[in-house]
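[Help] Beginner question about ligand-bound structures

Sorry if this is basic. My supervisor gave me a protein sequence and a SMILES string for pyridoxal-5'-phosphate and asked me to "get the holo structure". I don't really know what that means in practice or what format the answer should be in. Inputs are pasted below exactly as I got them.
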Amino acid sequence: MSIRHYANQDLLELVAYEPGKPIEETAREIGMDPADIVKLASNENSMGPSPKAIEALVASASGSHIYPDGASFDLRSLIAEKFDVEFKQTAVGSGSSELIELLCHALLRPGSELLAAKHSFSMYPIMSKLFGATYVEVANKPDWTHDLAAMRAAITPETRLIFITNPTNPLGTMVGQQEMDAFMSDLPEHVVVAFDEAYIDFADDKPNVLKYIKEGKNCVILRTFSKAYGLAGLRAGYAVSNIEIADMLNKARTPFNLNLMAQAACVAALQDQDHINKSIAMVKTGLAQYYAAFESMGIDYIPSHTNFLMAKVGKGKEVFQKALAQGVILRAMDSYQLPEYIRITVGNERENTRCIEVLRNVLGK
Ligand SMILES: Cc1ncc(COP(=O)(O)O)c(C=O)c1O
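Answer (accepted):
No worries, everyone starts somewhere. Holo just means with the ligand present. The predicted complex, written as structure tokens, is below.
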């Protein structure tokens, strides 16, 4: 009998996470110099990391023979200060992906339900499946925002974890304060709400969800250094919650889950607001560039609160492949059940101009 027979059957049935196509792989496949390829597929920051973060990273590297601080004291202290919460209310992870997994460790059992909006981050159904839980997705409103009233109505006695992705990926839309307040007003005690705020730095008029944590509610804010902070390659994210939830996350993690260099770089990155402001400005300029181009081409798009946007191009997979052949890596959305769309990360002006040129070419516009 194969070992598969004895393995976790939920894992065997899993469709693994499909990341954006790497530059090197594309270069090999199409025979192009990697330097000529533009990757706008994974919502990274074209501006790169803060120079101060790189400096801190390099300075820390010579201490790599010693285990890092397992408690990530400096970084978590800084996060606690930024959010005006206690140190014990924080946790860090190897990307916010790890924190999503830790939440599932803490809360899901076979038969539990994980609730999320339709077309949201693909790690939620993957993790749900891995833990033998049932993934329940709720259709969005016609304006592509989460339908929080419908999500509230979908809570059952088995619901343990609810993801509100704000702004959401891949749609780029955001839920405002009023709807959030209504949703949070009388939640049953057996659910935890995770506000996945991977893209919150790019949004204006963001709802205040920290106040629910200060009120002691069962909720957690998840943030990442992969997007506005430009540190996707380093793998770092953090969580802020009430003490009980943070304690569960810290128990479930491996002892040194955030490496030495990541800890050092993230401390420096968190303090370099100037770099974040420049990144946000680049994205706002880039979004305007895409909106104008799509309007002139007569292509529908979803206005975005993030560093990416969705364009309705018809056969998304075909457009993705044709753009790829010309050295521009985008993201097809068929696995997100949106086959008519492609998702484009906003890059710098040169990258955006190249992407728009290629799309005009591919779409004959
Ligand atoms: C909504 C959302 N949450 C979480 C993540 C995970 O990011 P990371 O693991 O790089 O911190 C992503 C990455 O694309 C995302 O889009």
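A couple of things worth pointing out: The chain has 14 helices and 13 strands. The pocket of pyridoxal-5'-phosphate is lined by residues 43, 95-97, 121, 165, 169, 196, 198, 224, 226, 232, 237 (CB under 6 Å). Feel free to follow up in the thread.
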